[in-house]
Amino acid sequence: MSTTADKRYDVLVVGGGPAGLAAATTAAGLGLDAGLVDERPTLGGQIYKQPGPGFVVKDPVRLGRDHLRGRELIDQAEASGAELMTLTSAVAIRDDEVVLVPEGGHARTVSAGRLVVAPGAHDRPVVFPGWTLPGVLTAGAAQTIVKTQRVLPGERLVFAGSGPLALAFPAQLHHYGADVLVALEAGPGPGPKDVLGLLAAWRSNTALLRDAVSYRSQLLRARVPLRYRRIVVRAEGDGRVERVVHAAVDRDWRVVPGTEEQLEADTLCVGYGFVPSVELLRLAGCSFRYEEDLGGPVVVVDEWLRTTTPGVSAAGDGAGIAGALVAVDEGRLAALGAALDLEALTPSEAGRQARPVRARLARKAAFRKALRRLHAIGAGVYELATDDTVVCRCEEVTLGALEATLAEDGPSIGEVKRRTRLGMGACQGRYCAPLLAAMLARQGRPLDEHAFFAPRAPAKPMAIRDLVDVGPP
Q: 52, 49, 46, 37: which is closest to 89 by C-alpha?
């Protein structure tokens, strides 16, 4: 890899979702030389994902609110003067330098006065018998198929999950024409205290409440049942999903015996929340805490979203799952903090511009607090697999093999990886590591940075030819 920086930015943003777009726009608007990189072909991130290259949108309104909100952020970033680089992956961070690999090109190194990491998140992995069958897919995968290719993932669909997505995504799928048989929410239905809490926070969160009411109304009009305290137990079928089995759960999301029900379906969409994509932040040496309801590993930040690593800030769902509207304001706040550090703003001016942003973030935090009981993650979500269930689909490691290894002599997570090959596949542990961490927690081990695989560059699998600076022949 190149050892000399090809270019220096005042602020370099990693991630083209809501937080990254807002950070790049804000930094450029303050007169800073800002750059943004994203590995996808289009900007917008997961929630605001745009149709793929080659699609022409003639009526944006028909694509829904997420498309319109994302398009507005993208238009602002494009008009800001920031350099926007798609199909470009950031794979390593070293001091103030970042290694970038463009698709079809070779690695190059750039440097930045301040780095804002806004990597977003990926679906929380939930392992159960049959989860590897064709026709079982995560909410993120289904969103990608629908939003970028305008293709429905199946004809008879069951949605199982928790949180705002359990309302939003079934309604969106039905809007696109899918036959949604049922939406299963593992959490409880809202009670009187929950309603009062939401009403207390409604004045500052009308857009969120309006969205929730709209999605619930769509499900009611379409006669799609929304069943609370139900979790997917297994998927069955010969070569692909043919049946979905679900059951009632207690407050910890553990299955209540004798409550199983079965549905004939060809698609199971699973959405139990998200996990922050923290690979780059871990490579940068940032400190973390563990908070399950924010996705698990959460980077430690200060009031300007600076991490414990000098020159590195974090924003959006990559710094803790809080939603797209929060991510936008966190991106703005991180950019203001970067401008303050670079002396492009005085402390008083930075404080003045940050004041309304902080106020909005505080109101969103109050809204999340009101929803906490409804969307708290139960430990039972990590206890659905059986001995012969494959828990690492890349390396085909079963739960039985993993438990046998853990029972030997209390191995570290690194030793488990070396003995079983768990986490050595293409996903690099993104799907199996959270389950392993939960198993270690049940053995009494702390959920800290040592409960996950050690970070290694590159942050995502890359071809060796793309990482080598081959130079002239």
A: 37
157 sits in which H/E element: strand 156-161
Q: Where in the chain is the domain with CATH 3.50.50.60?
A: 8-122+275-345, 125-272
The reported pTM is: 0.88
Judge whether 91 and 457 are in contact, CB under 8 Å: yes
pLDDT digits (tens, 9 = 90+) for 3-26: 456 899 999 999 999 999 999 999
The residue among 147, 108, 141 whose CA lies nearest residue 123 is 141
C-alpha span between 82 and 24 (Å, rounded): 6
Contacts of 311 (CB under 8 A, 6+ apart): 95, 96, 112, 113, 114, 115, 341
| Separation between Cα atoms, residue 347 and residue 349, nearest integer Å | 6
Radius of gyration of the chain (CA): 22
Residue with tokens 């939960």: 438
* Separation of alpha carbons 198 and 65, rounded Å: 22
Q: Are 288 and 278 in contact (CB under 8 A)?
A: yes
Element housing 311 (H / E): none
Q: Report d(CA 66, CA 327) in Å as an integer.
A: 14
The residue count of the chain comes to: 473
Residue whose tokens read 């430690």: 300
Whole-angstrom distance, CA of residue 405 vs CA of residue 412: 10
Among residues 149, 18, 40, 50, the alpha carbon closest in space to that of 85 is found at: 40
Helix (H, G, I), strand (E, B) or coil at 320: coil
The CATH class given to the 125-272 domain equals: alpha beta
Q: Tens digit of pLDDT for each residue in 101-143?
A: 998 888 899 999 999 999 999 888 899 999 999 999 998 888 7
> CATH number of the domain at 8-122+275-345, out of 3.50.50.60, 3.30.70.2640, 2.60.120.230, 3.30.200.20?
3.50.50.60
Contact 455, 283 (CB under 8 A): yes
